[in-house]
Every structure is written in structure tokens, then in C-alpha cells.
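Collaborator request, handled under Task 6.
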Amino acid sequence: MLNKEENFLNRELSWLKFNERVLNEANDLSKPLLERLKFVAIASSNLDEFFMIRVAGLKQQVESCIDNRDTAGLDAMDQLRLIDHSVREFEGKKYQFLKKIINRLKQEKIFFSQVENLSVTGRQWLDNYFYQIINPVLTPLLINGSNPLPLLTNRILNLAVLLGRGGEESQIGIIPVPSVLSRIIEVPDGDRGHTFVFLEDIITMYCTYLFCGYLVEEVIPFRITRNADVLIDGEGAEDLLAEVEKSLRKRKQGEPVRLEIAETQKTFLKDFLLEEFKSTGLAVYEIIGRIDSYCYMNIADLPGYDHLRHALLIPQIPIDLQNTNKLFDVIRDKDILLHHPYESFEPVVDFIRQAAVDPQVLAIKQTLYRVSGNSSIVSALVQAAENGKQVTVVIEVRARFDEENNILWARRLEEAGCHVIYGVAGLKVHGKMALIIRQEANCIQRYIHMGTGNYNDATARLYTDMSLFTANKQVGGDASEFFNMLLGYSQPPLWEKLIVAPTGLRMCLINLIQREIEFAEEGKGGHIIAKMNSLLDKNIILKLYEASCKGVRIELIIRGICSLRPGIKGVSHNITVRSIVGRFLEHHRIIYFGNGGKGDVYLSSADWMNRNLSQRVELMFPVEGPENSERVKAILEIMLKDNRKAYIMKSDGNYRHVLRRGVAVNSQERLFQEAEVRAGISL
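C-alpha cells returned to the collaborator:
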């Protein structure tokens, strides 16, 4: 009864619903104007990645005649058809929103101008800019029998140019728009405000110069999106680093999956491009606005327009960590819970920095999945190694789209004398942990940091995550065993406190859900609150359906993909699903089990997806002690009360805004206020 196709939602369509919620932020009139523009850019970038990975994978299934059906009963071709319909609706909505924002920007004296509408002064400046800056980096190509269409770089804008000369046959030219230059260029054009023109428009104006002797008859911008889902044989490769680098080179040459072309009434160039790519079966979209709306992100950061952006929020330092350069003393006395970005990530960086210079610290062990481009964490690890500490870093060089960055950091760490491990054969290491081993008096003391998010001081200002400092001896013992397991020195042990994937996390979750079922059957109530990014694992979903049927109240806060259908009579009538989309990206994974009124709280690096539970090394750990566990429960309750930025999922998979009744609750604003209180700032 529970395991029926109609009880599940398709993963890809669920993701597209999520990206639509992201785009809807661009139409939120209560949001500052440049923040709205930023969400157009984010939603566009999200869709690019979706095509490079998810659509590319489905396309490969079709080409390989693989007859796989998802939990909702859809095969790859079914999914591609539904995706195409959804994307076309998305693109139409996006450009409607973008047009409204651009019109409003005119009132703020921010103008996007056509080149021909510039003043004489502006045209003169542009003339000089083209010859001095743009022209030297252009590579116009003439396409003919001896010069076929070259391999076009993934997601790089190009101009297709139709060229005529006397009575000769028309020629085709291609101009890659150089990505080394800014796509949107400010032009001095009087004192009316900021005037911007697009790089492709400037190049178009000078096409006659670039193809001297030809008549330019038509110019059309277009862009190719390629398959970027590189396959890395981490188990068979003797040198994983070399294997990753080889795969990255293949990414640039992946099969085309999408062609975006500017809308045109003429057909010659469009037919030429379609003919060139006809064998690839790619999706084709005629774009009514600018191709690649991510370019507007630079305008969102335009100086001098702070009134069009959110007021700056300063992450707080909780009272326990203020005015101290002795983090270890504080952590030894009590567990410290941090809630980012409302509370600062700086104590996490200081944790490694202080360890790097502390003469009593013997060793540092840490996992790294995604780190920032200028990582303070890595710099501190380098300093620690240079100071003679034993530093071991498990760095996941297969973290998608961060591979090159992670390879650079890995080499720097190795050069400094760190022992670097490039992940685990066959598994991605996604768990977040730092372990400090310190000599104190006559004993060895372990200090541990674990979290739901990456050791990335840049995204820690944008993503919501929770992390925990502890000196708990049982956790410390588990932490040492965890790193021994990663380093290949031991088999998975029997854990005291930690729950680890892929060996035990799924079964632990199922057992915890089963415990709630038993409480419900005994009339003691059963209650689960679970917050994460994605819920896809079929076994977990079926167990949640079973719990719903037995009377367990289940409240899910799922930011993105959710294959579970809530509100189905006799299946999921006791389950609600909501999604919060706001200023910060909701990233933490928090789980609450009622446990007959005792209330158990866990934090985790893992979403409830098959890849996380079966194909990755993940961590889940308890938040213990009444102060911290009650705080986490209160945070979940604030999110469940959100009636400003929350959506409720209906049983058909569509979402509606939570009804705005009673006291207004924006959970992200409320949680920042809570952080100020915890920092001792009176409101």
C-alpha cells in the first residue's frame, strides 16, 4: 500500500520547484531591489548546474537505452519532456521578473543602454575602450570547409555572425565573447547616473571591423551548456589527484546538453546552429532577454547603492567566547553550540589558529570538503605544520565544482609538511570534523569540532549551519577512531556517540523512527522534526509513511528536493513538509525525536539521500545537555512558525506560501535577534 509510484515525487521536478521558489524571491516587493536582482542571478546559475549534471545524466540514459524508472515511475525520456516544459515556464517567469526590476532600477538612475542610444561622449569613450581593451583579446573565427566549427567552451557566450560579400555565398563567423572581461560595462554618459552596456553589444557594433571586407547581415548571441558530470574512478586510480585532473579536462569537452540562442525572426544562423548540433539531441531554448542572467550578480554589488541592499548583519560572538584567547579552557568546561551565520564562524577559525601556535598541541586532524578561495583554515593548518605539529588533513578532491580549488589547497598543505589523504576509495568524505590532540598535565585531552556545514569562512556568512565544540571523552574516542578509519588503519568500530555513514546511519535513523512508532502505539505520542536540504531515500520515506500511519506527528523542513508526498490519506496524513527560502541559504541538517517526552536532538552532515547514506562518509552526532538541546528544539520551533519566508508543500508536489496570519515571523530575522541576545546585546 505504501510502496506505490503515486506516493512519490520525481527528484528532478522537485528540484525545479525549489529553483522556482528561489526565483520567486526576485518578485518579493518587500525585498531591496538589488537583492531581488541577485536572486535572478542565483536561480539562473542553479539552472546551469542542473543541466550540466542532472539533465546530462538523463540524456546519457536515453542514449544508452537504459530503462530505469524512478520511484515515481518515470523513465528518463518522461523526465526530460517534463523538465523541458517546466524550464520554458521558468524562463518566461524569470524574464518577466527581470524586466520589472530593470524598469525599477531606472528610477534609481541605473540604466542598461543599447550602444546606439549612448551620447556622443559615451560613444567616444566606448570607441577607445573597444580598441584598447576588447579588441586585443577577441578571436573572430571564419567557418568554412577548411575551418569547421571549433569546440565551444561550456557556458561561454558566443556570437554567430552572418557575413555577405557581393554576390558570393554567405559565410558564417563565430566570435567567442571573452570571459576575462566584464560582461556588463559602465560607460561615462553624462551625469544621469550609472549607464551600463553589454559586452556582446559592443562587439556586435564592431563586427564590420573584425570581419573586414564583409557585410555583416545578422548577429545572434548563443551559448552551449555541456555535460560536466565527470566520472572519477577513485578506487582504480593509482594517483587520485592525476585522475581528478584528467577528468576535469574532460569536463570542458563534455557533450552538449543545451543550446540557448537569442530570439530571432530570421532563420539562417539559427538553422546553422541547429544543424551543427543536430546529432547531440540537445535541448534548444530561444531566449527573449539576455542569455546567462548570472551576469547581473555584479550589478547587485554596485557601490553607492546600499539602500537597495539588505542592511549589513554582523555575526555575533556568544558571551561564552567573548574576550578569550583560551578556547580550549572554555570548551573543556562546557559544550559550545554555534549557529551560523547568525553567530560568527571566527571561533571555528580561531580553534585551528590557536592550536597552530599552542605548544601543548601535539596534533591536528581535520576533514575538508569545500574551502574558500582564500581559506583562513588552510592557512592555519599550514602554520601548524610549519610549527612542528602533526597535521593530518582528509581533503575531498572530488567535491563537485570545487575539485580544482581543493587540488591547489592539497598541494599547498603537502608542501607545508601536512599528511594529506585524498578521500576514501569508492566514497566521498562529506563529514565535517576537526580534532585537536593536546598534552595537559599528565594526560592527553581531545578537543573536537563538528558541524553541518563546510569549513568555508566565505559560505559561513551566507549558509545557515550549526556546529559544536566539545571535549567529551566518548566523542573524543570516537573522533580518533573516525580518523583511523579514514586513514585505513582500522575497520569501523562500535561507536560510543557518533553515527557514521555508510556503515550505520541509515539503520540508526530507521531505528529511531521505529522507536517513535512504538511510543505512538503505546499512546505516549510520537513526534519527529527533521530539517535538511533534500529527502530522497526511498527506505527512509517508506519508514516515515509507516510512522504517519501509526500516528507519529512528522514535521519536515526541506529546503530543496523532496520525493515524499505529504497529506495523502492513509499514507502521509500526519506529515507536513515546508521549505524556507530567504536571505540565507538554509543548509543545516537538524533532527528531533520526541523519545517519549525526553526529546533527543541530532546534528548531521547528511541529507536523507541514498548517496549520503550509502556512498559517502557522513556524520550524525547528538546535541546533549539541556541548555544546548533545548536551544536547538527552540530554533526548529521558530522555523515551523515562519509565516513570511516559508512555503507549504501540497500533496501534488506544488507549494504555496504559508498563510500570513497572526504575528509576523520571519525565522531568519528572528534567529539573528536571538543571536544578539546571546551575545549580550539588548534589543
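The cover message to the collaborator said: "The longest strand covers residues 215-226. Residues 500-678 form a domain with the Endonuclease; Chain A fold (CATH 3.30.870.10). Please let us know whether this matches your experimental observations."
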